[in-house]
Amino acid sequence: MTIISKDHPRYISLVTRNKIIDGVNIGITSMHGLIAQGRGEAFDYLIGEHTTESAMHAQRCAIAYILLAKNPIISVNGNAAALVPKDIADLSNITGAIIEINLFHRSEERIEKIIKHLKLYGAKRVIGNKGDATIPLKHDRGIIEKEGIKIADVVLVPLEDGDRCEMLIKLGKKVITIDLNPMSRTAQASTVSIINNITRAIPDMVQIAKELKHKEKNELMEIINSYGNNIILSCAIDEIYKNLNEQKK
Ligand code: PTJ
Predict the structure, then answer these.
(1) Angle at 90 between CA 87 and CA 96, to 5 degrees
(2) How many angstroms separate the CA atoms of 131 and 169, rounded?
(3) Nearest residue CA, atom 5 of ligand 1?
(4) Per residue in 29-53, pLDDT tens?
(5) Ligand 1 pocket mutation pick from 159, 163, 195, 198 by most atoms within 8 angstroms of CB
(6) What is the value of pTM for the model shown?
(7) Ligand 1 lined by 202 (C-beta under 6 Å)
(8) Which end of the chain has fewer CB atoms < 10 Å from its terminal CB, N or C?
(9) How far apart are CA 210 and CA 66, in angstroms?
(10) Percent helix, strand, coil in the chain (nearest 5)?
(11) Is the predicted pLDDT of residue 2 greater than 80, yes or no?
(12) For 194-240, how does the pLDDT look when each residue is reduced to its tens digit (9 = 90+)?
């Protein structure tokens, strides 16, 4: 693995790439995950590679939903497991949300490896290897767990494909997504769209969960009621406009 100097101007981006490549090498991330990361990077560049104010608002609303949920689930794929395993474990342990491994390019071997990987980082409740229930989708993301996504009222789905997001909404669940592309079907369909890099969003959400965990139900409801997803999507697109305009000579 190439050694990256901390004073390299693209240090964070290069380290993140290495995490995804490591994920592929240890068999938790699919090869397609490399391409997905590249697409994410391009949008992150346009957004300015920081957590915007509107993304922070979405992250707070997401945590309010998770803390108020009866059966919250954090759905994890190969990219999420490679990029932020410790923060996913912390978020699950703090909020009580179960982690369910759900893969687009599903293999039993990769599911087992991801479960082991997350447990190594301290995750206590990880499921996904039974696949004992389904939702109507024409690909393997439709294979879910009876005690997980099937009965969930709130599902956090980082780096999602639009199909499943739309189906989960159709099934009456509240869906929180993390996707850097504000124009994706996923972002457009979600209850709460976090337009941020998962490498910033999940660590932020761990801190927010620690802060909101002891708040009263009505305070959490206030956060949810003050939220409008269409406004958040417009803010992300405005941010991209602003950044592009600043590049004009
Ligand atoms: O592990 P698997 O088999 O479930 O496969 C996972 C991937 C990510 C390969 C699969 O879900 C996939 O192909 O995803 P897509 O359709 O490429 O969508 C990924 C979305 O996530 C795109 O809209 C990207 O912009 C966005 N994205 C990529 N990297 C990041 C990201 N969003 C936030 N943070 C990132 N680091």
Answers:
(1) 135
(2) 20
(3) 104
(4) 999 999 999 999 999 999 999 999 9
(5) 159
(6) 0.96
(7) no
(8) C
(9) 12
(10) 55, 10, 35
(11) no
(12) 999 999 999 999 999 999 999 999 999 999 999 999 999 999 999 99
Is the C-beta atom of 179 inside 6 A of ligand 1?
A: yes
Output the residue whose Cα is nearest ligand 1's atom 27: 40
- Closest ligand 1 atom to residue 162 Cα is 16
Chain CA centroid to CA 130, Å: 22
CA distance 79 to 64: 25
Kindly give, in sequence order, each residue whose CB lies less than 8 Å from that of residue 139, ignoring residues fewer than 6 positions away.
104, 163
Q: Which residues have a Cβ under 8 Å from the Cβ of 21 and sit 6 or more positions away?
A: 1, 34
With b for 16 or more beta-carbon neighbours within 10 A and e for fewer, the 129-140 pattern comes to: eebeeebebeee
Identify the three-state secondary structure at position 28: coil
